[in-house]
């Protein structure tokens, strides 16, 4: 995965003044990315918790969309078979 693949994603970032904030800004800046910072934290543990929660939500919603798509297709096919049998 490249930085450009996540450029439009929401970013959790360290607060201004944190040593890693400048490092992250330098890396993203060199890649030409202006991050969409949605939350700022002071502690790495807080960042990890927020990122983990976001990933869980993202993957759960992706799984839910796949299940929904499957169910729509499944019932559409069954309805076609039932209507054809009438």
Task: Describe the protein in words.
- The chain is α+β, with helices and mostly antiparallel strands and 86 residues long.
- The chain is built from two helices and two strands, in the order βαβα.
- It has helices spanning 19-30, 44-85; strands at residues 10-14, 36-41.
- A two-stranded parallel ribbon has the order 1-2.
- Strand 1 (10-14), helix 1 (19-30) and strand 2 form a beta-alpha-beta unit.
- The longest helix has 42 residues, at 44-85.
Provide a short characterization of the protein structure.
By secondary structure, the protein is of the alpha+beta class.
Number of helices: 2
How many beta-strand elements? 2
The strand order across the widest sheet is: 1-2
> What is the H/E order?
EHEH
Helix coverage percent: 55-70%
Uncertain stretches of 5 or more adjacent residues: none
The main pleated sheet reads as: 2 strands, parallel
- In terms of quaternary structure, what is this? single chain
Q: Span between N and C termini?
A: 51 Å
Structural class designation: alpha+beta
Q: Identify the overall geometry.
A: elongated
Mean pLDDT: 82
Q: What percentage of the residues does DSSP assign to strands (E)?
A: 5-15%
**Rg from C-alpha positions?**
21 Å
């Amino acid at each position: 995965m490249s930085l450009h693949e996540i450029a439009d994603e929401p970013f959790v970032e360290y607060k201004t003044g944190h040593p890693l904030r400048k490092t992250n800004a330098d890396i993203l800046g060199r890649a030409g990315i202006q991050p969409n910072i949605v939350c700022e934290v002071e502690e790495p543990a807080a960042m990890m918790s927020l990122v983990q929660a976001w990933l869980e939500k993202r993957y759960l919603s992706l799984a839910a969309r796949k299940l929904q798509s499957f169910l729509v297709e499944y019932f559409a096919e069954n309805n076609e078979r039932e209507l054809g049998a009438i």
